[in-house]
Amino acid sequence: MTARKKIRILIADDETHVRKYIRAVMERMNAEVVGEAADGRQALEMFAEIKPHLLLLDINMPVKSGKTVLKEIMTRFPKAFVIMLTSLVDPETVEDCIALGASGYIRKDVGLDEIQTIIKQAWQNYKTVRMASHSQ
Q1: What is the pLDDT of residues 70-122, one digit of tens each?
Q2: What 3-state class would DSSP assign to 133?
Q3: What CA–CA distances, in Å, run from 49 to 22, 52, 73?
Q4: Does residue 124 belong to any structural domain of this protein?
Q5: Which of 56, 74, 92, 135 is disulfide-compatible with 101, CB 3.0–4.6 A?
Q6: 96-105 contact pairs (CB < 8 A, 24+)
Q7: Measuring CA to CA, how many Å separate 60 from each of 7, 8, 26, 135?
Q8: Does some domain include residue 70?
Q9: 127 or 93, which is more confident
C-alpha cells in the first residue's frame, strides 16, 4: 500500500445535483467516489458493505435521518470517518452530530475551495487522532 492511495468516499444525499457536485469536488481532489446513496437506509447499507474511508452524509435524509444513520454507523464502526452535509445552519443539530462522532460538517452553500479545505483539515485531524489511538 502506498502513501498515494486514493481516499475512498461514499456520498449520501437525497438531492441528485448535490451528489453530482460533491462527486466533482472529490474527483478534483483525486479521491475515488465508491458509491452514492439517496436515502439514509441505503447510506447505512452501502457503508457497511463498501467500508469507505469517508462518508459525506446529509443531515436531512428520507427513510432514516442523517443523524440516525450517524448514530448507527458510529455504534457499529466506531472508527468511521464521517463529515455531515447540511443546508441548515442549525448549530444544535450540527453540535449533536459532532458529539455523536462526526468529524465535521460542510454547509452545501459554500464554494469548492472551502469544501476542499474542510475535507483536507478534517482528514488530517482524523488521521492524527487515529494514529494517537493506535499508539496507546
Answers
A1: 999 999 999 899 999 988 767 788 889 889 999 888 888 888 888 888 888 88
A2: helix
A3: 21, 9, 12
A4: yes
A5: 74
A6: 96/67, 97/59, 97/66, 97/67, 97/70, 100/67, 100/70, 100/71, 100/74, 101/70, 101/74, 102/57, 102/70, 105/59
A7: 25, 23, 21, 36
A8: yes
A9: 93
Q: Give residue for cell 485531524.
A: 125
Q: Which domain holds residue 17?
A: 8-134
CATH code of the domain covering residue 36 = 3.40.50.2300
Tell me the C-alpha distance between 44 and 47, whole Å. 5
Residues 4, 62: Cα–Cα separation, whole Å: 36
Could you give the 3-state DSSP secondary structure of residue 22?
helix
* Model confidence at 2: pLDDT above 50: no
In a domain, 2, yes or no: no
For cell 455523536, the residue is 100
In a domain, 52, yes or no: yes
Is it the case that residue 57 has pLDDT exceeding 90? yes
- Considering its fold, how many domains does the chain have in total? 1
The answer to whether residues 7 and 32 touch, using CB atoms and an 8 Å cutoff, is yes
